[in-house]
Amino acid sequence: MPTIRVEMFEGRTPEQKQAFVKALTEAAVNTIGSSPEAVDVILFEIKKSDWASGGVLWSEKKK
């Protein structure tokens, strides 16, 4: 059974998350032959102030 762990910034709607986990599940079924029921997806939503790249917090990056 595959477990797919996704870390992403917070702020997606429940509808976006549902569509995303459905697409991930379908991709696992189509590529590795898993059954949909065996695919687990765990979403971790992280605040931009808790994630940094290159020594800079994402909350501090210019848009």
Q: Can you give me a brief rundown of this structure?
A:
The chain has 63 residues and is an alpha+beta fold. The protein is 30% helix and 29% strand. The mean pLDDT is 96.
How are the elements arranged and paired?
Blueprint (H helix, E strand, L loop, with lengths): L2 E7 L4 H19 L7 E7 L5 E2 L2 E2 L6
Parallel strand pairs: 1-2
Antiparallel strand pairs: 3-4
Structural overview:
The structure is a single chain. The protein is an alpha+beta fold and 63 residues long. It has a single domain, classed as Macrophage Migration Inhibitory Factor (2-Layer Sandwich). Helix content is 30%, strand content 29%. It contains 1 helix and 4 strands; from the N terminus they run βαβββ. The protein has one helix at residues 14-32; strands at 3-9, 40-46, 52-53, 56-57. The protein has a two-stranded parallel sheet with strand order 1-2. The protein has a two-stranded antiparallel sheet with strand order 3-4. α1 links the parallel β1 (3-9) and β2. It is elongated. The relative contact order is 0.26. The model has no long low-confidence stretch (mean pLDDT 96).
Low-confidence stretches: none
Structural category is alpha+beta
The sequence of SSEs as H and E is: EHEEE
Overall number of strands: 4
Question: Order of strands across the widest beta sheet?
Answer: 1-2
Q: In percent terms, what proportion of residues is strand?
A: 25-35%
Average pLDDT reading: 96
Count the domains.
Answer: 1
Shape: elongated
CATH architecture: 2-Layer Sandwich
CATH class: Alpha Beta
Any idea what the CATH superfamily is called? Answer: Macrophage Migration Inhibitory Factor
Largest sheet properties = 2 strands, parallel
In DSSP terms (H or I, runs of 4 or more residues), the helix count works out at 1
CATH topology: Macrophage Migration Inhibitory Factor
Radius of gyration from CA coordinates: 15 Å
* Percent range of helical residues: 25-40%
Distance between the termini: 39 Å
